[in-house]
Amino acid sequence: MKSYTIGQAARLLGVSPDTARRWADAGRVATHRDESGRRLIDGRDLAAFSVEVAQAGSGEEETPYTSARNAFPGIVTAVKLGDVAAQVEIQAGPHRLVSLLTREAVEELGLEVGMRATARVKSTSVHIDRA
After folding, report:
1. What whole-number distance in Å separates Cα of residue 70 and Cα of residue 26?
2. Which residues, including other chains, have CB under 8 Å from residue 99's CB and lie 6 or more apart?
3. How far is it, in rounded angstroms, from Cα 9 to Cα 7?
4. CA neighbours within 13 Å on the CB side: how many for 100?
5. Which of 20, 34, 43, 93 suits a disulfide with 10, CB 3.0-4.6 Å?
6. Which candidate, 68, 123, 64, 118, places its Cα nearest to that of 94?
7. Measured distance CA(33)–CA(24) in Å, rounded
8. From first to last of its 131 residues, what are the pLDDT tens digits of the chain?
9. Edge-to-edge strand ranges of the sheet holding 39-42
């Protein structure tokens, strides 16, 4: 499973690294250390925490998103596979985006909860790019 540094997690959550570090220090999100001593957050833990933060509206800082290129980098928080279609949810800072796409596309991209992805919005269509 993918793990994220405090800085990477902060960017995905739409907060400063100091805020993400304080949340980790307070035990709001679990961390572990890699072989070089860096603190990391497991992708699944970060996905769950990003949903919690968005629902609570507890972000201390809000990173404004612009419509330039309509790209929303975030973390995959849910993947629901059907026989032909699939639903993918991405938490991009305070924004939750849901895309309906083919099961084949999800499998080709290897999308799973906890991985980084970017939702690109064009009119009423959302496309997912694996990061």
Report:
1. 34
2. 87, 88, 90, 119, 126, 127, 128
3. 5
4. 5
5. 20
6. 64
7. 12
8. 799 999 999 999 888 899 999 999 999 999 999 999 999 999 999 999 998 888 776 444 444 444 546 788 899 999 999 999 999 999 998 899 999 999 999 999 999 999 999 888 876 667 788 87
9. 3-5, 39-42, 32-33
